[in-house]
């Protein structure tokens, strides 16, 4: 397999400029009570305050802005039931182009509402991967729109990497940086940027025990697809992407796991102590850190809080 051409540090810097008008520069928060519990110093990069409520705004905006004028005229398409759907719809609308979003019929109403609110056209399909892919194919054929995949796509990875760029620019003394891993766009982008920035900084992924394909793939040294995931962290159900696995194998030092009850405890802790709203997937790195405190003792740890799109009617506490 030939080595993929990954974005360079300069590419990621250009991406940060390219998406500037599309995104928020999110704050870094600390919490002394959580630091005391954890036995280390934690810096939280708050992508729950990002546009569309998640880091996904970055990758989608970057991918849209890199299209040619001819591609833009025909719009963009994707299949997603989550944050990527909303992020792509919004990026397209801001760029003044159409977006076609294939969503499973059982996608949460709140997500469908978000996509419509951001100006996306929803095409519903049966809730399985094959239906998603064939429906998307038909949409692309009919409209000529460009398919923007949610995570396994260079322009998306490059956009997600701008989060870690901002983080390191502002917090220049981190020893470890952590991000959750589902499809791997955020962890891949974070690992790539951190490697360029300072290869001495350890990059650690965090994953739920009920959806641990990245952990198993990482340990086995080959891609093991996700089967029947079962976890409250609904943003991390998807299989790790091929490109992201390549980056993770090279530049991530470890992937740690957290159980659903640990994830819920960490989520509640952030709500109570920091007074901010995060979704379950977002709590996974803190949950994994608290489960393995010895490993982080006395260190300066950066955690990317990936998003805050949680259905408040279904809070687990």
From TrEMBL:
<dbReference type="InterPro" id="IPR001926">
    <property type="entry name" value="TrpB-like_PALP"/>
</dbReference>
<dbReference type="InterPro" id="IPR036052">
    <property type="entry name" value="TrpB-like_PALP_sf"/>
</dbReference>
<keyword id="KW-0663">Pyridoxal phosphate</keyword>
<feature type="domain" description="Tryptophan synthase beta chain-like PALP">
    <location>
        <begin position="23"/>
        <end position="307"/>
    </location>
</feature>
<protein>
    <submittedName>
        <fullName>Pyridoxal-phosphate dependent enzyme</fullName>
    </submittedName>
</protein>
<dbReference type="InterPro" id="IPR000634">
    <property type="entry name" value="Ser/Thr_deHydtase_PyrdxlP-BS"/>
</dbReference>
<dbReference type="Pfam" id="PF00291">
    <property type="entry name" value="PALP"/>
</dbReference>
<keyword id="KW-0460">Magnesium</keyword>
